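Internal tracking record. Fields below are filled automatically when a chain is submitted to the structure queue. Please do not edit lines marked as system-generated. If the sequence contains nonstandard residues, flag them in the REMARKS field before resubmitting.
Queue: standard
Priority: normal
Entity type: single polypeptide chain
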Amino acid sequence: MLSSSSSRGASSEYGVISITANEGFSPNHPLSGSTSTYGVFKKETKPNGYGTIFRPLAVNGVDLMSVEKSECKMDSEGDLEAILNTNHSIDLFESDFKDSNLEIEAMEKIRQDLRVHERALLRDALLIAKVFHQRVHSLTKDYHLLEEMFIQIDSIATSISKFIQEIDSLQLLNSQSQTGNLMNMMIESIGTAVTKQDALLRNMTTYISALYQLKHSNAAFRMMLNDFEASSECYLPVIWLLIRVLNRLLHWQEACARVVEILLANGHVNGALGTARMAVDHLAHHSASTAPTRKLLYDFAVLLEIESQLCGITPIMHPDRHLLMLGRVSEVLNDGFAPRLLLLFNDVLMVTTENRDAFSILRLIHLSNLKEGSASLITQNSRTCILVDSEEGRFIFTAKVTSLWLETVSEGIRMYHRNPPALLKLQLVLERKGNSEGEINKLSYGRLTLMSACWLRGGTIGREEIHQMAEKWRVGVLLRRLRSSSGWQRLFVLHSHGHLFFFNSHKDSHPLAALCLLEYGVSVPTLHDQIPQRNVFKISHQQLSYFFRTDSHYSFLRWVESVRASCLSRRPLDALTALSVHL
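SYSTEM-GENERATED OUTPUT FOLLOWS
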């Protein structure tokens, strides 16, 4: 329980905070063992005249000057948050007192974010245009479309490199005029960037189709592509790397929107605000106009990934086919329950089970054989199980999100009968197709495919959530809490495609490890976790927990927002975390 009181005089201001708890201090700490801790602090102006600090005077009557700084983990300014657990001591004056330089600090964060995101995209673009192209050039030199794709990606890489140099030339954003310079630079760059991105988008479907056809017709190219995607430097399949480059301007739109938000919050009505709004409008229009094509590409990429892990079926790739939902369920059999992975497409419900590095198809339930309402309740409780009656037989399934499956299957049946897709029926085959794939699931640093992640975590993911994951990504430096000590490890972290990829630095050519976020929950540390630092978020799944620390509250909010989009644990945020991220 948190409670507080304060008194303000003419020359000084004081406050008291109370925490009813007995955790948060080490056994040797003078304040340990207290069931109720009271802190008295004094509000003072910073020496430079900008902003305020809260200098602690005493806690439970203990003079803080007599307590070792290493024990209290105090910083040079004696910040109250260094004594009380960061995530359980609310900043009482945050809404009442604002530092006058917060606006400039936030703008500088946006500039740094732009720079680090562009640098990560440059790495991806060069990975395709240089590294991958060099490996397969002997096989693609006679394929005009693929060579054209490499040229376009290389051109975008050059554009990204130039933009990074322009960002660096601004140096620190230490004034409002510098903020205006950033917006002017972005306005000047948007036109060229949109032209290049549109040219790539117009042809991307053709390029990916050419890659797919060459992969299935040329054994040597297929082997090279599989080897490249299984290598440590290629942390994502080539098609998803292409999509990341294609989505470059989505982060620009977010950055410009943040600038508008900050300027409006600080009362600006002219200057950089008008330029920022112009940039947001231009980028938002481009995003909306390209959204349908981008979503088709996401669907195509998902089908390509799924097909690489399926065995015992004819090829599933088709422009009119897309995945509606994927997840692990339990099938009710006469002798008990059996784990299954369900794949609901817009024309068929596929029942599979794991088979080493792949998934074997047990049966296909075509939606053409189902009528609306055929996926009906077997009990009165929609959370218990569903019954599917079809020409293929009667099947009963249970899942953690049975009601969601019921709703999605029913909607899929309605959509099919309302507008049947022109698709040939998929057929089961006796043997696995000749080309051996699935290598991507064996990567040493732990990246999981959607199917493998849902199978291992018992998760479920829908089409819209996959689209969201494709567009939510973040990159930057995080500190990871070490389990063996109270220390922190500095890592360069890339969040993309539902994973956290960990690098020693941005110069590394391959990640040290990867963590799939599906079914993880996001929260702030509890008092029991004994994390006294600021801006720390926690991701957890069952008994596993990881703590990550950012360098600012701005970065904390952006990371939590981005990571939440990939976790899909369907667990609501606890009240404390919701307060921390202002939801």
